[in-house]
Automatic annotation (TrEMBL):
This is Phosphatase. It comes from Streptomyces griseus subsp. griseus (strain JCM 4626 / CBS 651.72 / NBRC 13350 / KCC S-0626 / ISP 5235). InterPro entries: PhoX (IPR008557), TAT_signal (IPR006311). It comes from the Bacteria. It holds the Pfam family PhoX. Residues 508-529 are annotated as: Disordered. Residues 511-524 have a biased composition (Basic and acidic residues).
Length: 689
């Protein structure tokens, strides 16, 4: 451990500058791309829609209340015994501690905040590393050797910086599941010994291309434990990289805005980039958001390049030196072919994954569908940038059940036809009561109503002055024009499979309330927002065309001792501190699990569970923490297993291969490797019961 660097954070928030540099192209240090003054335009365009919609929103709440489903009723008062639980200072391992209490599924002793260079899990649980960066998964791929990396080897090995994870069933193969993983970005300084950022070699660049993208890898569980390991060379195993073939589909496919000199059709794209989070569809495919794609493109020239955060000079990784398509001065449309939601059919290793233009183009964090009562998928999506927007897509088609070839082919068209919407939220408290401090308004809640403003349906644009192609390719501009609400970095969005309520992680926004920037509003109620919040929406699942919703803040994150925090009204002395909610997932009990990115409270990032209904609604408990410099990603919560992606371990300012800031997962002297971790209960019982 001697070579470990002290924890330094030069970023506003808990993230290291090294993470900013490689992950999002230093977005926080650059001008916020949304400089639109969209309120005025919004009032004109949305005005007619919104009065009707507000009335409908009110109706939705009433109807849903009567049905006892999606309405936002107040949290039930926590019962006295709920408060008896150990607080966030509780240390696991006390010999006389009572059995952990909590909501069903969350009965574990919370992990205390810490800075240990390991994955810390609750008492009575066990863990294993499922797969590491560089482990071979395809036939012919060699074992990982950090000093003999090649692009060819990497293309058959598990990629770098695992993020989103999905586990899908694999029928007929006992104890096996199909795992799909995103590989968001590469950190060359932590990958290559002696890396020279000013002069990357062609081989290093090609390794980075191969380390991006997606992995499909079949995993096998060990008898009677939750332990998982990869099945090398399984026929479903697959790598998709920055140079694999993808097809553009949906209403904007073939648009002139998507054509380049290498692809006159505007339908065939090489690669997927910066796949952050994603989603798993009810029809057995996976969705993958292309997030900070802007950072890979050099020499941006247009206003639209700027609106998407694309710089005007060379890039950090210098890919433009090795492939002209990354130089927008030469190929101005190439960047338009990134920033989409990708759909992959992991059961068909020969299928070409599709970029779904109907879901719009922005910095897609994730895409999680839920079906309406009549079987149409609704996909929720956040645009992860300060002051950018929250979207949803509603398909005009119904999912076909079953696994027949016809059903599967039909379901692969669901995300090509429908309506794309952006959210506008209004608070119900007087604006004078929203003072930017996080103090609750007099009605006791940050809440209100909202409207989904339609942007385009198929080839019909609903945005004056923009064609449908423009709406899909320049979706941010469409949001500006209709007056969408500028949010605090909308990340993952997850509809509850049980209640239908929709949860939106808003990570943070250090610029909220700064001079010349939007100030606090009821949905984004803190200026210089360091810790983020989670928004809860009530949707009308019985009417896919309904455009109104009710909303409230479910959590306002931070140290519970900080008066500017809120945990759905649950007693704060009984919850874990949390900062920067990012990815979210549900367990079978209806608890929301939240992973964090950039903890600004001084602890390492982690994974938390919180009850969303019942007496313990708002009781938040920390389940694990990750090693130094890492972020917690991709949580999957199964009955007997929790799966997390430990992303960018050791990514701390000043670290390199030679001077590691973490020794995870393999100990001193071994290169730090982003890896997937499985956690299960030693007694074999379900998680948290
Ligand atoms: Fe890749 Fe929005 O985090
Ligand atoms: Ca992430
Ligand atoms: Ca209110
Ligand atoms: Ca994220």
């Amino acid at each position: 451990m001697r070579n470990l660097l002290p924890f330094i954070s030069s970023h506003p928030g808990g993230r290291s500058a090294l993470t900013c540099r490689f992950r999002c192209g230093d977005a926080c240090f650059k001008e916020t791309p949304n400089t639109s003054d969209n309120e005025y335009a919004g009032d004109i365009i949305a005005g007619a829609v919104s009065r009707r919609s507000m009335m409908r929103a009110a109706a939705v709440v009433t109807v849903a209340t009567a049905a006892g489903t999606a309405a936002l009723t107040g949290p039930s008062a926590p019962q006295a015994e709920a408060v008896a639980l150990a607080g966030h200072g509780h240390q696991p391992g006390h010999p006389h501690k009572p059995a952990p209490s909590g909501a069903r599924g969350l009965r574990f002793s919370p992990v205390a905040p810490n800075k240990d260079d390991k994955v810390t899990i609750p008492d009575g649980y066990a863990q294993n590393v499922v797969i590491r960066w560089g482990e071979p998964i395809l036939r012919g791929a060699p074992a990982f050797n950090p000093d003999k990396q090649t692009a060819k080897a990497q293309a058959g090995q598990f990629g770098y910086n695992n993020d989103f994870l999905s586990l899908l069933p694999l029928r007929g193969e006992r104890g096996r599941q199909v795992m799909v993983a995103n590989h968001e970005y590469t950190d060359e300084i932590l990958m290559f010994r002696g890396y020279d950022p000013a002069n990357p070699t062609r081989e290093q660049v090609e390794i980075a291309w191969a380390a991006h993208g997606l992995s499909v890898v079949v995993v096998q569980e060990e008898n009677r434990t939750g332990k998982l390991g990869p099945v090398n060379r399984h026929p479903l195993n697959r790598r998709l990289t920055a140079t694999s073939e993808f097809r553009m589909t949906g209403p904007a496919a073939g648009s002139t805005l998507l054509r380049t000199s290498a692809d006159r059709s505007g339908r065939k794209v090489l690669g997927t980039l910066n796949n952050c989070a994603g989603g798993t569809t009810p029809w057995g495919t996976t969705l993958h958001g292309e997030e900070n794609f802007n950072q890979y493109f050099a020499n941006g020239t247009t206003d639209m390049h700027k609106r998407y955060g694309i710089g005007t000079s060379a890039t950090e990784r210098k890919w433009e030196r090795f492939d002209r398509r990354f130089d927008l001065a030469k190929e101005p449309n190439e960047a338009n072919r990134f920033g989409w939601v990708v759909e992959l059919d992991p059961y068909d290793p020969d299928s070409t994954p599709r970029k779904r233009t109907a879901l719009g183009r922005f910095k897609h964090e994730a895409a999680q569908p839920r079906l309406t009562s009549d079987g149409r998928p609704v996909v929720y999506m956040g645009d992860d940038e300060k002051f950018d927007y929250l979207y949803k897509f509603v398909s005009s088609k119904r999912m076909k059940k079953g696994n027949s070839r016809a059903a599967r082919e039909h379901n692969l068209t669901l995300l090509d036809e429908g309506t794309l919407y952006v959210a506008k939220l209004s608070g119900d408290s007087p604006v004078t009561e929203i003072d930017g401090s996080g103090k609750l308004p007099d009605d006791g809640e940050f809440d209100g109503s909202g409207v989904w403003i339609p942007l385009a349906t198929g080839t019909t644009s609903h945005v004056p002055g923009m064609t449908a192609d423009e709406v899909y390719v320049y979706t941010r501009l469409a949001g500006d024009k209709v007056g969408a609400t500028k949010m605090d970095r909308p990340e993952d969005v997850e509809p509850s499979p049980r209640t239908g309520r929709v949860y939106v992680a808003l990570t943070n926004n250090s610029d909220r309330g700064k001079a010349g920037k939007p100030g606090a509003d009821e949905a984004n109620p803190r200026n210089s927002n360091k810790h983020g919040q989670i928004l809860e929406l009530a949707e009308n699942w019985d009417d896919p065309t309904s455009d109104g919703f009710a909303w409230r803040l479910f959590l306002v994150a931070g140290d519970p001792d900080d008066p500017a925090t809120y945990f759905a009204g649950f007693p704060k002395e009984s919850v874990s501190p949390i900062s920067c909610p990012d990815n979210v997932a549900f367990d079978a009990h209806g608890n929301l699990w939240i992973s964090t990115d950039g903890n600004a409270l001084g602890s390492h990032d982690g994974l938390f569970g919180v009850a969303t209904h019942g007496d313990r609604r708002g009781e938040l408990k920390q389940f694990l923490t990750v090693p130094a410099g890492a972020e917690t990603c991709g949580p999957v919560i199964q009955d007997r297993r929790v799966l997390v992606a430990v992303q960018h371990p050791g990514e701390i300012d000043g670290a390199s291969v030679e001077k590691p800031a973490s020794v995870w997962p393999d100990g001193p002297g071994k290169i730090v490797r982003p890896s997937v971790v499985a956690v299960w209960r030693k007694d074999g019982r379900d998680i948290g019961v």
